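User: Last request for today: this protein with zinc ion, please.
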Amino acid sequence: MTTCLTSHRAHDFAALMAAWHRVARAARLHSIILGHAEGLPVVAFETKTAAQGEPAAYLSTGVHGDEAAPPWGLLTWAEQNIERLRTEPFLIAPCLNPVGLIRNTRVDQRGIDLNRRFHLTRDPLIKAWQQWIKPKTLRFGLCLHEDYDAQGCYLYELSHQKRPLSEPVMEAVAAIIPPDLRGTIEGSKAKRGIIRRKVLPEGLLGPEAIVLHKLGCPVTFTFETPSEFALDHRIHAQRTCIEATTEHLAILRS
Ligand SMILES: [Zn+2]
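Assistant: Here's the final one, the structure of the complex with zinc ion:
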């Protein structure tokens, strides 16, 4: 089963979640309601083995509603990996900002950029998210985004590993959309679309990947596709990134 997408449906939250509930039934996922946004549920899923406490991979999209490709890329990957979802440990946040997706806005219904808030437990949604994530052991985290200024795909890698882990992922993605080859991206030094961070940027407390890191997640990737490229290619690149990351980081399974 694969959901077909035409561009006018890219911001159709109901269609996105209807497809996710079909995946959840087929893969026997547990669903968790993290909160509501103007009456719409903010849903998270966990696989059976993740619910049983096995160290899990965390996959997240839809933090910024004007970035349409990542939610559909993650859905497409899930639709094509039902058997893995039945047996392997995954925690999945398929759309953390539903109103933003519907309105095609970066911010949520309160005008807030959620990706500056993941450290703030006074935010009810973030409090529920932290209550969900904190008891889990994470193998790695993948946060999926898009960037209007990007000239290709790029990826922030945050880990204590000596060697970069994201090179094979960016190689796989390059077959769909080449990497952004700028030497500096968003103020950070980049090499063939990879920005490595072993030390946390000062004063930047709220991004999801940084909070995951602080909660003990050993490796986080934040992957970005270029918003100005064709939607189908961006969705394909997002799906390929998830495929390659879950394959190459399987070594972190222990
Ligand atoms: Zn974003």
